[in-house]
Design the sequence.
């Protein structure tokens, strides 16, 4: 038996990820997909990441980097494989994905989301990117530069926790 589970479980986990991506029918970040999968206990983090990497390597999932953010979506080849092996996903799991994991409100939330990240620029500087996206369009993009790694981490953490409130306040100030 594989350390990640038996062959049937591994195939089933890959099919579940393909099923979710097909139902979403839009590019998502790894973080968004991870939140959906983990919040409904469909599989653990490590198995999910391994299965996703294997799906990308086999071209069943397309991964594109757009402005330092990876977007993933099911490929046509992934759709074909999913259609062929759909019967291997237990009906209760399909129902769970359809009714609990991906209700309309979840899909709406994915089209309006915020991201934050930082990365080094040179030896002693960090660039911080803050985004608010709506319907796959950038509604707001803020770029900051700092020499303090702890400050960069703090800004990213705060943005991830309160981006909706902060973005609203910024827009209110700009609209005054």
Sequence:
């Amino acid at each position: 038996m594989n350390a990640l589970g038996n062959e049937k479980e591994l195939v089933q986990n890959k099919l579940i990820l393909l099923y979710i991506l097909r139902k979403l029918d839009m590019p998502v970040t790894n973080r968004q997909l991870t939140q959906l999968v983990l919040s409904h206990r469909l599989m653990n983090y490590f198995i999910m990441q391994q299965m996703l990497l294997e799906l990308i390597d086999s071209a069943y999932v397309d991964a594109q980097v757009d402005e330092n953010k990876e977007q993933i979506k099911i490929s046509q080849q992934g759709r074909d494989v999913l259609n062929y092996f759909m019967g291997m996903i237990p009906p209760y799991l399909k129902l769970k994905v359809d009714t609990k994991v991906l209700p309309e409100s979840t899909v709406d939330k994915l089209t309006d989301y915020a991201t934050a990240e930082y990365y080094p620029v040179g030896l002693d500087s960090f660039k911080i990117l803050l985004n608010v996206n709506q319907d796959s369009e950038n509604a707001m993009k803020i770029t900051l530069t700092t020499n303090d790694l702890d400050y960069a981490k703090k800004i990213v953490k705060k943005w991830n926790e309160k981006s909706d409130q902060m973005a609203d306040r910024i827009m209110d100030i700009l609209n005054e």
